[in-house]
């Protein structure tokens, strides 16, 4: 209960504070200026007996690797590859990445390998969504997990030893064309759709660069760009640093049903309502008795059940909420009722059904 009260009080201080200005760069991104995901398939070798063994994918992959090196495995031979593991490689290609630059890669097992500790990734291509090769990856893995086992079958695992990372483990081979330097207009997309925020952003940009921005919809603004890379870059840098006060977010109550976490934002308002809350606790205690037969009798020992049932009815409290109550008043009323996180969810849902809670309920 103290934790819930502290959480609600903290939310009151943080969320009820006046909305302040944000930089445009924090409210969205320019269209096309985004990372691209890359994936690949590869083989990690040099493991200390923690690989996939005779996993078919590893065997076929090693045939391909040995073939590229001029060594052909005899047909029908299935080598034991306990020191190798089949892996999936993932990476993120940043915007404007150029050939020759390096990026980090993450390597994850897809078979029965126990650990990637001490392994090295064999040269592997990384593909984009269009099927083209955009980077080549290779290097020694850094694995944060540890897994050991004994001959009796006992095991100890720390973190996740089947996932590793290679810093600067891939070299970019192809850049992604964004059209950023050739389009006459660039589009700026807000992280959260809001017409009021888009309008304020348009006014702020036009005050700095008259007639350059217009609102396309609740997410997108179109901005006319000058010719020339230097002038375009200077204008974008200036736009990103303009301060804009975003519109107040819609009224929402976020409920995580798995953890019991409840978050109420400052836009939540209540119509006049009265809340009565009480709980009934039933306790059942079993205290079985052992009954012994009389001496020299034909009876047998028996167990006699004895149950003790108790009811605990907590005092019912009534809280009155006036119309238009703000977040602070809502928190005070709920604290007065002394409710826990689970009961708080029930009360909020009941207020929503009664039409007293003017907010969107989001259940995670």
Summarize this, please?
The protein is an alpha+beta fold and 364 residues long.
Q: What would you say this structure looks like, in words?
A:
- Helices cover 23% and strands 36% of the residues.
- The protein is an alpha+beta fold and 364 residues long.
- The chain has 3 domains: 117 residues, no CATH class; 137 residues, no CATH class; 66 residues.
- A 6-stranded antiparallel beta barrel has the order 3-4-5-10-7-6.
- Strand 6 and strand 7 form a beta hairpin.
- Helix 1 runs antiparallel to helix 6.
- The longest helix has 14 residues.
- The radius of gyration is 32 Å and the shape is flat.
- The protein starts with a helix and ends with a strand.
- The N terminus is likely disordered.
- Its main location: other.
When the domains are counted, the total is 3
The percent range for strand residues is 35-45%
Low-confidence stretches: 1-18
By secondary-structure content and strand pairing, the structural class works out as alpha+beta
The averaged pLDDT comes out at 76
Compute the gyration radius: what is it? 32 Å
Signal peptide: 1-21
Subunit structure: The basal body constitutes a major portion of the flagellar organelle and consists of four rings (L,P,S, and M) mounted on a central rod.
Organism: Aurantiacibacter atlanticus
Subcellular location: Bacterial flagellum basal body
């Amino acid at each position: 209960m103290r934790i819930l009260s502290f959480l609600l009080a903290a939310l009151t201080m943080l969320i009820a504070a006046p909305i302040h200005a944000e930089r445009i760069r924090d409210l969205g991104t320019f269209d096309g200026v985004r990372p691209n995901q890359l994936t690949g398939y590869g083989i990690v070798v040099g493991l200390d007996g923690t690989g996939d063994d005779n996993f078919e994918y590893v065997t076929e992959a090693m045939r391909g690797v040995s073939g590229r090196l001029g060594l052909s495995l005899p047909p029908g031979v299935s080598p034991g590859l306990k020191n190798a593991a089949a892996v999936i490689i993932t990476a993120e290609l940043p915007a404007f990445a150029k050939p020759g630059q390096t990026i980090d890669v993450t390597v994850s097992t897809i078979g029965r390998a126990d650990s990637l500790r001490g392994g090295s990734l064999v040269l592997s291509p990384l593909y984009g969504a269009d099927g083209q090769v955009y980077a080549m990856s290779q290097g020694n893995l850094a694995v944060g997990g540890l897994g050991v086992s004994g001959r009796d079958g006992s095991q100890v695992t720390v973190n996740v030893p089947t996932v590793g990372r290679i810093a600067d483990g891939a070299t970019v081979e192809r850049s992604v064309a964004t059209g950023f330097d050739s389009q006459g207009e660039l589009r700026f997309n807000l992280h959260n759709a809001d017409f009021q925020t888009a309008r304020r952003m348009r006014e702020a940009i036009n005050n700095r660069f008259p007639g350059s921005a217009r609102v396309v919809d609740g997410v997108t603004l179109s901005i006319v760009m000058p010719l020339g890379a230097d002038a375009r870059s200077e204008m974008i840098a200036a736009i990103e640093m303009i301060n804009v006060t975003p519109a107040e977010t819609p009224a929402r109550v976020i409920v995580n049903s798995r953890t019991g976490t409840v978050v109420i934002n400052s836009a939540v308002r209540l119509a006049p309502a009265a809340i009565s809350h009480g709980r009934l606790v039933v306790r059942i205690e079993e205290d079985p008795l052992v009954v012994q037969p009389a001496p020299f009798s034909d009876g047998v020992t028996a167990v006699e059940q004895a149950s003790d049932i108790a009811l605990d009815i907590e005092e019912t409290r009534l809280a009155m909420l006036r119309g238009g109550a703000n977040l602070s008043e809502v928190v005070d009323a709920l604290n007065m009722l002394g409710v826990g996180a689970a009961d708080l969810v029930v009360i909020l849902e009941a207020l929503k059904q009664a039409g007293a809670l003017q907010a969107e309920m989001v259940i995670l």
